[in-house]
Amino acid sequence: MTITHPTPTELHSTGLSSVQILPNNNVLICSGRWGYTFEITPDNEIVWEYKTPLRGGNPVSQGDTLLINDNLTFRFKRIPTDYPAFEGKDLSPKGWIELNPDSNFCELILSVDEDGTGTDLVPKQFELSQNYPNPFNPLTHIAYALPTDEFVNLTIYNVLGRTITTLVNEQKHAGSYNVSFNAFKLPSGVYFYKLIAGNYVSIKKMMLLK
After folding, report:
1. Which of 51, 46, 57, 48 has its CA nearest to residue 34?
2. What is the DSSP string of 57-122?
3. Cis before residue 133, ω within 30 degrees of 0?
4. Which residues contact 132 (CB under 8 A, 6 or more apart)?
5. CA-CA distance, 77 to 39, in Å (whole number)?
6. Given this model, what pLDDT does residue 121 score?
7. Is residue 191 part of a domain?
8. What is the structure's pLDDT at 118?
9. How many of the other CB atoms lie within 10 Å of CB of 188?
10. N or C: which end of the chain has fewer CB within 10 A?
11. pTM > 0.70
């Protein structure tokens, strides 16, 4: 298997690091000297990515720039929830590692028991919500259909959960819509759009490749 990061220079470290082949055939990679970990598919699509929010072992604010060797990370390993050593242990979250965390992005994360296909998460009326092309550079279009008149909010986020821009925030009539998103000023990477219309929500991932 050959893995190529969408930004090849991101997959580089002269020491530390780790690689784990996951049961779904994705690969979990830790670039140790950069404290950068990501899961990538066999088709070289980033599923999620994470930067260890420490500088010399001390917490830093979310989004701070970290240089090589600032946040050395020895390895990353995914352990299943049914791992025997977890039995009888309290695995509930205990707080944040980083300083000044922005929790808005947490609304975009599914629990380990949800796959995003249930009608409670993505109602049938929004199954046609999509962006094209994907991957894109630098322009993509987000299409969606409203079954009824609704107030619509359509917002773009980066992988850190920070708001990039709000494309729609107004009352819309029932019907089909198409909105353009131009990312010519943004770096390559994973982005998300969150579409809210009344009680309906659609969240999708987009890949910007330059």
Report:
1. 51
2. TEE-BTT----TTTT---------TT-GGGTT---S----SSBS--GGGGGGPPPTT--S-STTTS
3. yes
4. 140, 141, 143
5. 11
6. 37
7. yes
8. 38
9. 17
10. N
11. no
State the pLDDT at residue 19.
Answer: 95
* Exposed / middle / buried, residue 144 (Cβ in 10 Å: 0-12, 13-18, 19+): buried
Say what the pLDDT of residue 53 is.
94
Alpha carbons 124 and 155: distance in angstroms, whole number:
20
pLDDT for position 105: 61
Closest CA to 39 of 50, 51, 48, 30: 48
The answer to whether residue 93 is domain-embedded is yes
CATH at 157:
2.60.40.1930
Radius of gyration of the chain (CA): 19
- Does 133 share its domain with 94? no
CA 168 – CA 125 distance, rounded (Å): 18
Residues 89 and 144 placed together within one structural domain of the fold: no
Residues 97 and 173 in one domain: no
When divided into structural domains, the chain yields a total of: 2
Residue 75 · residue 17 · CB < 8 Å: yes
Give 10-residue mean pLDDT values along the chain (210 residues). 85 92 92 94 86 94 90 93 89 87 64 41 50 91 88 89 91 92 92 86 86
The answer to whether residue 111 sits within a structural domain is: no
| Residues 6 or more apart in contact with residue 180 via CB below 8 angstroms | 139, 140, 141, 142
Residue 85, domain extent: 8-101
